[in-house]
Amino acid sequence: MRKRRWVSLLVAVAVLAGVVTWALWPADPGYTSHDERLSVNGVTLDTRLYLPKTSEKVPALLLGHGFGGTKESVAEDAKEFAGRGYAVLTWTARGFGASTGQIHLNSPEHEVRDAQGLLDWLATRPEVRLDGSGDPRVGVMGGSYGGALALLLAGQDQRVDAIVPMITWNDLGNSLFTGGVFKKSWAGIFFSAGISRGLPAGGGGLLARGAAEQPVPGNPQCGRWARDICETYLRVAESGTLDDTAKALLATRSPAGTLSRIKAPTLLVQGEADSLFPLSEADANAKGITGANVRVAWFTGGHDGGTGPTSDQNRVKFLTLQWFDHYVKGAGEAPSGSFTYSSIAGLDPLERGSLATGFSYDDYPGLGGVDTASVPIAGPPQAIANPPNGTPAAISSLPQAGALSSVLNGVTADLPGQHGNWVSEPLRGSHNVVGSPTVHIRAASPTGEAVLFVKLYVVDQNNQPSLSNGLIAPVRLTGLPADIAQAQPVTVTLPAIVRNIEDGHRLRVVIATSDQSYLGPAQPMVYTVAADGAVTLPIVPPVPIATADAFWLYLLIGLVALLAVGAIVGVVLARMRLRRRDRTVVAEHADTPLHVRGLRKTYGSFVAVERIDFTVQRGQVVGLLGPNGAGKTTSLRVLMGLTQATAGDVLIFGQRLAPGAPVLSRIGALVEGPGFLPHLTGEQNLRAYWKATGRPWQDAKFEQALEIAGLGDAIGRRVKDYSHGMKQRLAVAQAMLGLPELLVLDEPTDGLDPPQIAEMRRVLQRYATDGRAVLVSSHLLAEVEQTCTHVVVMHKGVVVASGRVDEIVGDTPTTVFDVSDVDLAQKTLDRFDGVTYALDGSRSLVVELGELSRAEAIASLVQAGVGIDRVTPRRRLEDAFLALVGTSTAGSGDR
Amino acid sequence: MNGAAQGYSPTRTLSFASEFVRQWRRRRTQLALGFMVLLPVVLLIAFEIGGEGDDDNGNGAFASIIDVAVVGGLNFALFTVFVSSSFLLVVIFALFHGDTIASEASWGSLRYLLAIPVPRGRLLSIKLAVALTYSLLAVITLTGTALALGTLRYGWNPLQSGVSADVPTGEGVLRLLGVVGYLSVTLLVVAGIAFLLSVLTDAPLGAVGGAVLLFIVSSILDQITALGELRNFLPTHFVRAYLGLLSSPVQFDGIVKGAISAICYATLFWGIAYWRFTRKDVTS
C-alpha cells in the first residue's frame, strides 16, 4: 500500500517535470542568420540577414535602427519577422557601430543611397522573391532614424513595395526648432550620441539602444558626424535660431520634400508620449503622401514613453504585420484605412506597467478632430518674468524618461513668477480629445520679442493638475507691442494629445517663460501675457477596438454551467444511491441488535482483527474484554461505520452495515474517548449533537441523558474546562441521547472515580431493559464481571471465549495456594487421586482439586505441616484471561 | 421505515443552520469576523494620525491606489480590500476551509457525526457550504465596514483609480463589488487547497498553514518571468486581474481567465477531497 503510494507520487512528479521541460524547451527559432560586411556606396556596412527556414523564395524586409543604435538594436524585431516568413536585412547605418563612414543624418547621397545599395544586394540573393530584374519584393520599416530612412528611401527608390515608418520626423528643422525655439536637450542628446557612438541608455528595440563607453575617435568636437552637419549644429546650438543655411541642410535630411514621390503604401506609426517627434510630424507626413495608401496609427509610447505597454506593442505589431503581409507578401486582406490610437486605461493586472486600450475611427481626422468643443477660459493679463539664462526653468518632460514621463504628469513644476494661469469652469460631460487643442494668446514685451511656453493642464476635482505626456507648445513671438492693450491675439496650436477629459474637470492654460528642454533668451525680462476667449478641443468619438477574446468568456460560462449541472447530478445520484442501498434484512437476525460474523480488518500488512464472531441480543449487557491491542477498538470502529471491514459482516437488526448506513441511527456510541467541541458548554454540545441528527427534539430524552451525565451545574461550563472524567460522563450521556436500542461504549469507566464507576454499572444494567442492549468494551476484568451479563474475550484479533458471565466466571475447582514449603505441599497433594497441580513461582501452586473440596485440601496441608499464607479460588474467566494476557493482570493494568 | 431510528432521515442530518451555529459559537469565527471590522478602523486611524506624510509610495502597481485611498468611501474600501487581498484574506479563506474536517477530527467529534450517521458526502457539502458562507461573510464585512467608515469620514465621492478616469459613484459601487467578487473567486483556490488538506490531515493548523504556504509558493513562482507561459497555469497567476476592473474601459480578459483558472483548481481540489473522504478510514 505504502509502496504503491510512492510509485504514484513518483509518476506524478515525473509527468509534471516532463510537462515543465516540454514547455520550457527552447523552440526551434525557425530562421537562420548570416553576418556580412557589405561594401556599398563607398563604405562598409555591418549587416545581418535573417532567413526563414523554407525552400521557397520569400519577400524581404529592410529593418533600420534608431539613432545611435546598431543592427543589434533591432535583432528582436528582425527575428520575429523572419519567423513570419520574411528575409529580414538589418544593418548598422554608416557612422555607427562597426560600419565605416560618417553620419550624414539620412542624406540622399549617403544613408539613403546606402539603402538602395542594400536593395541591389537583396535582389542578388537567391532566397529573395523578385518583382523584376534587380527589383526585390521588399518592405522597409524602422523607428525614428530608421523610420525617416524608410520614408526617404521610398521617395527615392520605386522598388520599395511598402513602408512602416515609426516615431519619425517630417521636417527636422521644424522638429528641432518647434515654434522657432531650439529643443536643446533632445538636440544635445542626439549630437552627443553621434560622438560617443551611442545613446547613453534607454530606448526600445526600434529606438536606439545604448553602446558601451568607447574612446571618441578623431575630432573630439564632431566625432563621427560629417563635417557639414557638425558645423551646422555647433552654429545653431549656440545661437538658438535656425538660419537659412541650416534650414536648407536639414530640409535635405527630411522626408517632407520627397513625400509626394512615394508610391509605396505607408503605415505611419507615431507615439503619443513623444516630445521629440510629436504626432504633428506624422500628421504632416500623412498629408504629404499623395500618391499612395496611407494609414495612421498612434500608440502610447514614443521617444519619451518608450515602447508602451505590452498590449499597445502587440497592437502595433499586428498592424505592421498586416500591412506587410498584404502589400509585400501578398497574403491576407487589404488593411482598412481606419485611424487607430490608444490611451492608457489603467494598470496591467498581470504584467508590470500599465495597460492601453485601443480605439479606432473610420477615417484619419487629422489633428483637428471630427468635431470641436469650445471651452471658455478666463483671467486677467498677467506679468511673468523670464529668468536670466533661462534658469531656473520649469520641467515639463524628461527626454527618454520612458514610463517615468507618465508619472511626471502630475508633478510638472511651473515656477512662481514665471507663469500665468487661465482656468475654465468645470466641464459638463466628458470630452474625448484626440488631436491638437488651440488657444488664443496675447503678449507684450519691452523688446518686442518673447519666447513663451504654452501648456494645457487638465485639473481634476481635487485640484490636481496633469499635463498630458508633458507635452508643451513653445512659441517665439516677434513684433510685439510693449503694452498688452495693443497686443493682437495669436493662435497657438498645442501639441496633439489623446485624452478623455472627464465631467467636472477643468482646463488650465499656463503660459510660462522658461522650460528645461528648450533654449530661451538669456536676458532677464518681464512679459505681460493673456490667454483669451476659449480653448478649442478637437473631439473624436471614442470607439474602443473590440478584443477578440469572447472565447474565454464562453468557456467560463460553459464551465460554470457544467459545474452547476455536475453538482446537481452529483446530489441526485448520491440520493438515488442512498435509496437503492442494500436494505435486505437477514430475517433470522432482524431482532438481534448486533451480530458480527467473520469480521476481519487489516491495515496494509498489519492484521488488527483476525476474525471475530459474536452476537448481542436484546436485554444483554455484553462485555468485550481484552488487553490493550486486542482489536476491541478496531472492531468498534467498524461497527460505527468509521472504517470498512476487510472481510466479514456486521449485522445490526439484520441489516448489513456499511459506512453511513441509516441503521446506525439506532446505535448510540462512545468510541475511543469523548469528542466534543471545546468552545461549547456540555449542554450546548449535547443539543448541537442532537440537532445534527435531525431527529425530533422530544425523542432525545434530554433530561434522562443529563441525569446520567450527573454533571450538575458544570453542564453550563465550556467543555474545554472539563476534567477527563466529566467529559467521559458527558460522552456516555451523549451516547444515550434518544435512548438507542443498542448502546456501544468503549471503556466507559475510563477516568471515573470508584463511586461513579459503581453508578455507571447500575446505569448500564438498568439500560439493558425494555429490549435494549449494551456492548461495553474494557480491558478490566472486574468491570466486565460486575457489569455484564455476557462476555466476549478477545486477544490478538480473535475471540478466545464467549458466553454468559456467570457461566464463565463461576467457581472452578482450580485454587491457588501460597505455601511456606512447596516440596512438602506437593508431596501432600500427591496423596489424593485426581488432584493435579502446577508450580507457579517459587512459593505458589496452582491446583486442580477435582473431587477434593478446598477445605479438605487445606486441612491436609496444615496437618502435613505446610504453612499456608493464602488460598485463592480461581475462576474460568480469569484463567482464560490470564492465559491470554500473561501470568499476571498487572501487565494490562490501568491506562 | 428504512430500518433506521424513528425520525431519522439522512437528508435531515447536520442541517446548514445547525452547522452554521456550531461554527458561529467558536471564538475563532468571532475573532476572524471581528478583525474584519477592526482592520478598516485601524487603517482609518493610521491615515488620520499619519497625516499627509511623504508621497513616496514607490512606483508599484499599488502606489496609485494608495495615493488616492482617502479621496472617498469607495476608494477607502478599495484600498482596504487591496491591502488585505494578498495575505489577510488568503489566511481567512484558509482558516475557514482548512479547519472544517481537521478540527472535528482533532476534537474527536468527527466520528460521532459519522456515527449519527451523517452521510459523508453530506457532511462535506454542509461543511464546505458553511465555510464558503463564512469566508464570503468576512469579505463582505471587511468591504462593508470600510465603505461605511470611509464614506462617513471622507465622503461619498467618485472612485478614482489614480491611473485612468474617475468612475461615478453608482458605477464605482458596481466595480467595487466586481473587485470583491473576483477576489472571492480567486480565493476559491485557497479554499480548495485548504479543504483538501483538511480532509487529508487531522491537524487543523497544518491544513490552514499548508494552504497559505502553497499559495505563497505559487505567488513566488509567478514572480519568475523566466517560466514564461507556464505561469499561466499557476493558481495565483491571475489574482491581480481585478486591476482590470479599475481601467476605463473595464478590461475583462484577465478576470475571465482568472475565474476559469480558479474554478478549475477549486473543483479539482474539492473533487479530490470528496473522493478521498468518502473512501477514507476515519481513525481519529
Structure description:
The complex is a heterodimer of chains A (895) and B (284). Chain A is of the alpha+beta class and 895 residues long. Chain A folds into five domains: 31-266, Rossmann fold, CATH 3.40.50.1820; 371-539, Sandwich (Jelly Rolls), CATH 2.60.120; 548-580; 588-807, P-loop containing nucleotide triphosphate hydrolases (Rossmann fold, 3-Layer(aba) Sandwich); 810-892, Alpha-Beta Plaits. In chain A, strands 13, 14, 15, 17, 18, 19, 20, 21, 23 and 24 form a ten-stranded antiparallel β-sheet that branches. In chain A, helix 15 (702-709) packs antiparallel against helix 16. The radius of gyration of chain A is 50 Å and the shape is elongated. Mean pLDDT of chain A is 85; it is low at 197-214, 402-411 and 887-895. Chain B has 284 residues and is mostly helical. Chain B has one domain. Chain B has helices at residues 16-24, 27-50, 63-67, 73-85, 88-98, 100-107, 109-115, 120-154, 169-186, 188-200, 204-223, 253-277. The longest helix of chain B is centred in the middle third of the chain and has 35 residues, at 120-154. Chain B is globular, with a radius of gyration of 21 Å. The two termini of chain B are 32 Å apart. Residues 53-59 of chain B have low confidence and may be disordered. Classes of the chains: A alpha+beta (895), B mainly alpha (284). At the A-B interface, helix 1, strand 11, strand 12, helix 12 and helix 14 of A face helix 1, helix 7, helix 8 and helix 12 of B.
Reported for the largest beta sheet of chain A, the result is: 10 strands, antiparallel
Instruction: Identify the overall geometry of chain B.
Output: globular
Unreliable stretches of chain A: 197-214, 402-411, 887-895
Let me know the largest β-sheet of chain B.
none
Question: What is the percentage of strand-forming residues of chain A?
Answer: 25-35%
Radius of gyration of chain B: 21 Å
Let me know the average pLDDT of chain A.
Answer: 85
Alpha carbon gap, first and last residue of chain A: 32 Å
Total strands of chain A? 38
The CATH architecture designation of the largest domain in chain A is: 3-Layer(aba) Sandwich
Number of domains of chain A: 5
- As residue ranges, the low-confidence spans of chain B are 53-59
Task: Name the CATH superfamily assignment of the largest domain in chain A.
Answer: Alpha/Beta hydrolase fold, catalytic domain
What portion of residues of chain B is helical?
55-70%
CATH C-level class of the largest domain in chain A is Alpha Beta
Radius of gyration of chain A: 50 Å
